[in-house]
Amino acid sequence: MRYENTWDLESIFAGGTKSSALQEKLKNTEQSMNTYEANLTNWNPTEEVNSDELMNLLVENESIVKSLGQARTFVTMAHDANMNDTHANVVMGQIMKLSSELQKLANTFTKKLIAISDDTWKNLLKDERVNKVSFRLNEIRDQGKRLLSEAEETLIADLNPDGLAGWSSLYDTIVSIMTIPFTDEAGKTTELSVGQAMNRMYADSNRAVRQQLFENWEAAWDKHAPIFTDTLNHLAGYRLTLQKAHGYNHHLEVPLEYNRMTRETLDAMWGAVADNKQAFLTYLERKAQLLGMEKLAWQDVDAPIALGNVSATTYTYDEASEFILEHFESFGPQLSHFTKQALENRWVEAEDRPHKRPGGYCTSLPEWDESRIFMTFTGAPSDVSTLAHELGHAFHSDVLKDEPYLHQRYAMNVAETASTFAETIIDNATINQARSDEEKVMLLGAKLETATAMFLNIHARFLFEDAFYTERADGIVSQERLNELMEKAQRKAYGESLASYHPSFLSSKLHFFIDSVPFYNFPYTFGYLFSLGIYAEYVKNPTAFEEKYIALLKDTGAMEVEALAKKHLNVDITQQDFWQAGIDLMVADVEEFIRLTDDLV
């Protein structure tokens, strides 16, 4: 194997989560926080504002945030790669405590920042160093006006580890000990991890295997449903209480603010999706015909399509890596060079083995200005797409590493832009290299799995969460009602096109239980369609496009998305026309898929 498919955790902190170096890191971070607290306490900007003092505080805070982030990322990586590592929870508890203390200091800083008069603030912005990070500082000043008293905000920070973060951690703990039984043709039963079961349930070409796994999957999640019901209710209740206390009137205000976008943009996007579902429902209908079914069941939506003697394309990890490198190079040298570095330096954990957490993600080691990627690679085309997707995330972070630290934090919706763009490059490359119409159909099908996820599955998640938060504002929502809301959302999103639905999806989807990001759904569709719009521009004029693309990515941490789109694409994303252009690209893929399969049904 040319590219190793496991992380090099020892190079970060030798000894895993019991590392003495990790404990030393946390001790030093705490000491730095004490020094920062003293300097922050002595800072009195209402009497005399000194830009040097402000910049020194920003530098101190950056160092602490990066140090704590380095430790948090490492512990998360270690736990996700081996969910039997129970000590990870102990260390994460230490990190959460420090994070709580840091949040208190952040509230103090914000309080002092907003105490600066507008006239004085304008004078401060004349200092080039302050002006370079003015977008984020102005954002802090504006949002900080919602803060309660310092004593109240301190109490909220103290409660968070056993409140919002605590409930989220409980979910992780439960999922880490769950297994899904699977009985093979020989009658041997194996206990699969959640991640292994999920990968096989959606990707296995055998309908009976998918059906068995889905039934066992539902049973496993239903068994623990009372715990997940409590967890989801308390996460939402805690969040709604905080939002009300901070003057928010609707549960979507915080996620929209977090994603630096307006309600008009969100409504325009979902309006375009709702108006264009028929093409994707037609695709699901044709896929069912190709699989010899009247209608697809939930677990069949992402099933591979095999036609004639053409088997589903599979890749080794090395083959996938080389394929990605080759086609990233066709886009631009910077993306390809970065990807080669990431693969050769073991930034990717992709081995298929038990005791890994399900799903995939890209995370950051902020002190090193490096990313790390987590996934499980099984050889399917979708795994190649996932690897490209996460490498796109990593590239996004890399091009921002020389920007001011305060402008390196980009919102989740634009975070999906680079990842989806990279994924599109690879999906189109696999389709263009198809050796026959049958293989092209299979590859188009794999690509359209992503489209249906963004237009239908993600929409169902949004509809469910929107309805749940509306009802949760009036009190606890029962398990039965949660299932009703989930199935209702799925039926609406999928246009009643499936033979069966997945009410326990609400328990099995991690995104509903993440404490740090509310409404972890619509940003995916935003990023997907936004990226398709950028890709359409690339196709029109590919010459030197990488530089234009990087310029857009560099601005993602320092602009609201409407301004970002206007500056770099000259479009108004509060109107459906922009979103329609991206959807049209995928509709064309559906039409090609239907044309190629007309003679097969």
Features:
601 residues, mainly alpha, Butyryl-CoA Dehydrogenase, subunit A, domain 3, three-stranded mixed sheet, two-stranded antiparallel ribbon, 5 strands, 4% strand, globular
Write the layout of secondary structure elements.
Blueprint: H1 20-42, H2 51-81, H3 87-115, H4 118-124, H5 128-131, H6 134-144, H7 150-159, H8 164-177, E1 179-183, E2 189-193, H9 194-203, H10 207-223, H11 225-245, H12 253-258, H13 263-275, H14 278-290, H15 317-331, H16 333-344, E3 348-349, E4 361-365, E5 370-374, H17 381-399, H18 412-432, H19 437-472, H20 479-493, H21 505-508, H22 522-540, H23 545-554, H24 561-569, H25 576-597
Parallel strand pairs: 3-5
Antiparallel strand pairs: 1-2, 4-5
Helix pairs in contact: 1-2, 1-3, 2-3, 3-6, 3-7, 8-11, 9-10, 13-25, 14-25, 15-16, 15-18, 16-17, 17-18, 18-19, 18-22, 19-20, 19-22, 19-25, 22-25
